[in-house]
Amino acid sequence: MAAMRPIKSLYLLGFTPFLLGSACRVSTPFIHRDAPQQCLPYSNSWSPETFSFRIAASFSAKGHKFNPKTNLFTFKRDDQRQAETADASPRKRLDSGQDAFFVSNIGKSRNVAFGVADGVGGWSDSGIDSADFSHGLCERMADIAGEASTSSAWELKRGDLKARDLLQKAYNAIVEEKKIRGGGSTACIAVGHSDGALQVANLGDSGFVQLRPNAVYFASKPQTHAFNTPYQLSVLHPKLLARSVAFGHKPLSDLPKDASVTDHTVKHGDVLVFATDGVWDNLSSPDVMKLVSKYMTGFNGWMDGKDGVAASDQLDVLTTEGGIAKDRENTLQALLAVAITGEAKAASENAKLDGPFAREVQKYYPGEDWHGGKVDDICVVVAVVVKNDSKQ
User: Fold this and answer.
1) How far apart are CA 111 and CA 52, in angstroms?
2) Is-contact 84 94, C-beta < 8 A?
């Protein structure tokens, strides 16, 4: 998450660059008016439907060229209990800058935990790289989820691991270890169950959308204290905290309990897009919907039928390695993740086309001459929901 270019009006609010995060995301139109806020009742039928989350991630650090073949990670659900997290060690990190992600099976079950975290760039003015915090947070969440004590999906009750609890446990681990000098991060994470239940915890201005054929079915709302100042988890060394207070500044320090939690039910063909503000500052939810629709219909993941566009029976094949005839991006979820990252990257570097961030600046600070995209780190996690057949 990059510190914002100087906007003198922000100082009138009493915020210093040390405290600034990235911009809040614009409101999202075209949200399905019947989108549910809570999970539907669990059906305990004799042969309940089960689902799998086919997941891939793509990323690009600010100032680095985006390579769709190397800036890609595909989660292998059959033999990978814990996924790449963009390791907390700087030398081993993926090329995602201060953005980070994680994907992990929950214990030995087919339930999954996944999401993104976005290190707040404003901390760099105090000599702190928030990448240590965001990457460390994701690594801890993957560890906690992967080590959950379960032996099967059915033995893990829905309430055993909740999204906000996962965030809390990871944050506690970071604080207790005292290895990270300081930093701040937003987070948007999910716990997905094979029965179709999805719980999301979102803190700050990263976010997610739930897409269905021709509809943005749900879009999360950003949490901000003020323009360009998102909610953020943070850690700060006592000496740095004392120095900050001495100069009259109180660093922002939100807690996992402040995260917005929403419950959802997914169905076959849903596409879930979790992304940092490097995406949402440059692409709107309808922009992402249009891009996803292009690939889902182009590869027959969504197909025209007598009742309109609907999810196809080909999704299981398309989301399995080799389902798409490409060298690296050989699954539909990988194609989607790479496409969204590439589109956001191009929009961020386009100085002529105003994106959501530019429109927000013009709305709140009409005297500022801000046009074009907003260059930033970018991280996207895409999950395509596939109904399992009776043999899975």
Assistant:
1) 8
2) yes
Q: Nearest to residue 344, comparing CAs of 390, 261, 276, 298?
A: 276
Tell me the CA distances in angstroms from 206 to 120, 222, 301, one per residue in order: 11, 7, 27
**For residue 163, what are the CA distances in angstroms to 47, 176, 187, 235?**
27, 20, 11, 20
pTM for the model:
0.84
- Residue-wise burial string across 180-208, b where 16 or more C-beta atoms lie within 10 A, e elsewhere: bbbbbbbbbbbbbbbbbbbbbbbbbbbbb
SS3 8: helix
- Per-residue pLDDT, 120: 83
Give CA–CA dist 98/89, Å, rounded.
13
- For the CA atoms of 231, 83, 60, 122, the dihedral, rounded to the nearest 10 degrees, stands at 30
* pLDDT value of residue 25: 39
Q: Is 6 helix (H, G, I), strand (E, B) or coil?
A: coil
Write the pLDDT tens digit of every residue in 150-196: 544 444 455 579 999 999 999 999 999 888 877 889 999 999 999 99
- Cβ neighbours of residue 245 under 8 Å, at least 6 residues apart? none
Q: Give me 175's structure tokens.
A: 């604080």
Lowest mean pLDDT among 167-171, 204-208, 247-251, 316-320: 247-251
From residue 257, alpha-carbon distances to 150, 163, 187, 254, 317 in Å are 25, 11, 12, 8, 39
Amino acid of residue 274: F
As a whole number of angstroms, the longest Cα–Cα distance in the chain is 68
| pLDDT average, residue stretch 254-263 | 96
Q: Which residue has the tokens 């994907």?
A: 103
Pull the structure tokens for residue 72.
């890609």
Find the helix or strand (DSSP H, E) in which 386 lies: strand 378-387
Cα separation, 29 vs 90, in Å, equals: 39
- What is the gyration radius of the CA atoms in the chain, in angstroms? 20
Span 57-72, average pLDDT: 95
CA dist 62 → 28, 66, 378 (Å): 25, 9, 7
DSSP 37-99: SSPPPPP--SS---EEEEEEEEEE-TTS---TTTSEEE--TTT-SB-----SSTTT--S-TTE
